[in-house]
Amino acid sequence: MRSPAHSSAQLCGCDKGANYFCSQHAMTHSQCAPTPFEVKDSGVRQAFSSGMVRDTSANKIDYTTVLNGPMFERWAIHLTKAAEKYPDVAPGRPNWMLATSEEELVRFRKSAVRHFIQWFRDDIDEDHAAAVLFNINGYEYTLQRMKQ
Questions:
Q1: What is the pTM of this model?
Q2: In degrees rounded to 5, what are phi and psi of residue 69?
Q3: Is 77 part of a structural domain of the chain?
Q4: Is the model's pLDDT at 40 over the cut of 80?
Q5: Of 41, 62, 74, 123, which has the most beta carbons under 10 Å away?
Q6: How far apart are alpha carbons 28 and 32 in whole angstroms?
Q7: Is there a contact between 55 and 41 (Cβ–Cβ < 8 Å)?
Q8: Does the pLDDT at position 98 exceed 90?
């Protein structure tokens, strides 16, 4: 059986004539169609000294900015330690992501406020700043789920 990496040049990467199952499109390859995604274009180009040309990054979110400073790592450490106390309900599915109710929203909000006050008072018994981020994220995640 051939893998899609060795297949012919359809846009989806599938071999048009193959009869093995395409996991990307959940169908046999003979049924696959090109992916519906487009390549967005601002119309402005940035040329590099190597000759490479790319669309500019103007007006695009720079997700790497959250890595600046200590909080990204501290939040990750906090989540890693918490996963030992509250194991994932499924691989890659943290316990807190089960929240769907107003009661859980209130719990996230109260915990965020409590940890903020503890952070504000310079309490150092745990990483209260990271706990604030966790609870605000949990609140916003749950709120988004409830709206869907």
A1: 0.69
A2: 80, 180
A3: yes
A4: yes
A5: 74
A6: 7
A7: yes
A8: yes
Contact assessment for residue 28 and residue 39, using Cβ atoms and an 8 Å cutoff = no
* Per-residue CA distances from 109 to 23, 26, 114, 131, 143 (Å): 40, 40, 9, 11, 11
Q: How many domains does the chain have?
A: 1
Whether 56 maps to a domain, the answer reads: no
Q: What sign does the dihedral 84-86-89-95 (CA atoms) show?
A: negative
Task: Identify whether 109 is part of a domain.
Answer: yes
CA dihedral 62, 111, 85, 91 (to 10 degrees): -40
Q: SS3 string of the chain?
A: CCCHHHCCCCCCCCCCCCCCEECCCCEEHHHCCCCCCCCCCCCCEEECCCCCEEECCCCCCCHHHHHCCCHHHHHHHHHHHHHHHCCCCECCECHHHHCCCHHHHHHHHHHHHHHHHHHHCCCCCCCHHHHHHHHHHHHHHHHHHHHC
Distance, in Å, from the CA atom of 97 to the CA atom of 94, rounded to the nearest integer, reads: 6
Q: Is residue 18 part of a domain?
A: no
Amino acid at 54: R
pLDDT value, residue 11? 46
Per the structure, the complete domain to which residue 123 belongs is given by 63-147
At 99, list the tokens.
């929240």
